[in-house]
Amino acid sequence: MQVPQDGEDFASQPWYHGPLSRQKAEALLQQDGDFLVRASGSRGGHPVISCRWQGSALHFEVLRVALRPRPGRPTALFQLEDERFPSLTSLVLSYVTGQRPLSQATGAVASRPVIRQGPIRRSFSEDTLRGSPALTELPRTRKWSDSQPAGLEHMGRSREDHCGPEASAMPMCALPRMGSDPVLLKTPAPLGSVADSLRASDGQLHAKAPTKPPRTPSLVLRDASGRPPTYCELVPRVPSAQGTPPGHSSPETEAPWWEAEEEEEEESRSFARPQAEVSFCPPNNPSCLLGPQNRPLEPRVLSTLRGLFLEHHPGSTALHLLLVDCQATGLLGVTKAQRGAMGVASGLELLTLPHGHRLRLELLERHEALALAGALAVLGCAGPLEERAATLRGLVELALALGPGAAGDLPGLAAVMGALLMPQVSRLERTWRQLRRSHTEAALAFEQELKPLMRALDEGAGPCDPGEVALPHVVPAVRLLEGEELPGPLDESCERLLRTLHRARQMAQDAPKFREAAARRLRGFRPNPQLREALTTGFVQRLLWGSRGVGAPQAARLEKFQRVLSVLSQRLEPDG
Question: How many domains, the chain?
């Protein structure tokens, strides 16, 4: 591979293909080791490494961590797995020249670049990705949108004169900012998507970025509350997940709540009498995937979710799940008011106390719902046998990415393993046989690594060191404290009881260390809002049971859905 000179843009690299759909990328990958880098149309142009390995086309999303501009340092870092690089070119060179696997879960090695034929398409819109000839000419007609504020009056006016009649259907907000050109948003757009589009476009369409940013406003953001628009400079302000007052602007990019430093209490750390039971489940905000009233298992939503999970590699999905699990457990994002109400500083401490009853019920509900959703992902595949085997492989890879030493999200690992070990899934003999035939490494990892690990964790003997684990396995302790009996002979159950109680006590003592470990893994991570929502407890409940069925008693809901999964399993592989 050609080593680029300092300052060379990655768009000039022969392995970079620009906006390219997943299907077209897979058609270009012919042999094991073939790879290319493309701009994902569904992720606002974020880079994705597509590689063929062991006969399958794999796609690895490269996370782009935006930094505030400072002299002598890059404007962004590119992250794959746990490593960060100052440029996409240096990331690719490191993995290719060193012949290192792109992910530990797959072992895929990129060794042979697929050379780009022809110039890169300049538009990141979905129409351009589909090959619309009219929109391919967009970059050449930029003369009617100059870099002066006066040029804004031409934006959105007589578009057919510049782009052809076919381009009139594309909204202006679909075009990301190019270099220092101003873009006037004609319709309201989510701030998160605008921020991602803005960050992803800088330096991506031009060989050299502007040496000095303009002092005129570069972007107009309409506030959802209907207040007058606010302006932001090159680095947009991204609101934290806990909420920001509408219309409030700040020149500095705010750190997300999971990176905020924990407030130091002036008084000594002593026990405070709890005032009320605390819930860490986020409020039922309007969903971007579900309507106000939804039916169970809506096909449109299931199709959208499938595309989301296919677009993210297991490591990225594992970080999304770790973030949501840390919030649901009360490990990260605990406010001062919540600490005062529960009398302790962390949910890991609260779940061991009598007034942690509500939190324990929420964690059990989350565990069951995620396991059912994972089983549905397999049993809902009514297509070819290979499709179900590929879904099994995806769940196994996700479990590996959640394990100790990786994301370290043991509650998430337990939920995924609960789906794989569910009777309706484990009885699919033909599907598991196809997994062993087509995806041997994943099948071996499941049998030899994941199943023994899960068995040890359930018995209170698995790894729980805060260095390799970010969020410990809390389900055994939660079940025990809620009065569930331990299975097995009396002598074995007594030993297991003592180990589980000791592990719960140790988890509560090590809560600050777990918080530090989780925050370290999530530092610089910017989640996909839709995927993050899809992993919350409230969303999974509404997906499985509908907006009306969620209010039914838990036991009745679980029993009904188990029957649904049994019917699906029998349809896929009937008995006899």
Answer: 2
C-beta pairs of 377-381 under 8 Å, 24+ apart in sequence: 377/309, 377/419, 378/419, 378/425, 378/428, 378/431, 379/424, 379/425, 379/565, 379/568, 379/569, 379/572, 380/302, 380/568, 381/572
Domain of 341, in residue numbers: 299-572
How far from each other are the two terminal CA atoms of the chain, in whole angstroms? 56
**Domain end: 79, 113, 147, which one?**
113
Average pLDDT along the chain: 76
State residue 103's pLDDT score: 85
Which tokens belong to 244? 């920001």
Listed residue (445, 475, 482) closest to 460, CA to CA: 475
- Angle at alpha carbon of residue 496, lines to 490 and 501, rounded to 5°: 125
The strand pairing partners of 220, in sequence order, are: 231
C-beta of residue 13 within 8 angstroms of C-beta of residue 19: no
> DSSP character for 240?
P
* pLDDT of the residue at 127: 37
Least confident of 335-339, 363-367, 432-436, 534-538: 335-339
Beta carbons of 533 and 289 less than 8 angstroms apart: yes
Quickly tell me which residue has 């996909």 as its tokens.
Answer: 528
Q: Is residue 209 part of a domain?
A: no
Phi and psi at residue 37, in whole multiples of 5°? Answer: -115, 130
Is residue 410 in some structural domain?
yes
In the structure, how many helices (H) and strands (E) does the chain have? 22, 10
Distance CA 197, CA 111 (A): 30
Other Cβ atoms within 10 Å of 154 Cβ, number: 15
- Beta strand 16-19 with 34-39 is parallel
Reported as half-sphere exposure (CB side, CA atoms, 13 A), residue 542 has a value of 19
Distance, CA of 13 to chain centre: 28
Report how far apart, in Å, the C-alpha atoms of 95 and of each of 54, 88, 407 are. 18, 11, 21
Task: Give whole-number Cα distances, 515 to 17, 123, 265, 322, 524, in Å.
Answer: 40, 42, 17, 12, 16
Distance CA 187, CA 173 (A): 7
> What is the average per-residue pLDDT within 176-183?
40
Domain boundary among 60, 86, 113: 113
Q: Which of 165-179, 309-323, 561-575 has the lowest mean pLDDT?
A: 165-179
User: Domain of 25: which CATH number?
Assistant: 3.30.505.10
Query: What CATH number has the domain bearing residue 558?
Result: 1.10.840.10
Residue 561 has pLDDT above 80, yes or no: yes
* Token pair 């988890």: residue: 507
Q: Is residue 173 assigned to a domain? A: no
* Residue 58 lies inside a defined structural domain of this protein: yes
Distance of CA 552 to the CA centre of its chain: 30
How many Å apart are CA 26 and CA 34, to the nearest integer?
10
Secondary structure of residue 401 in the 3-state scheme: helix
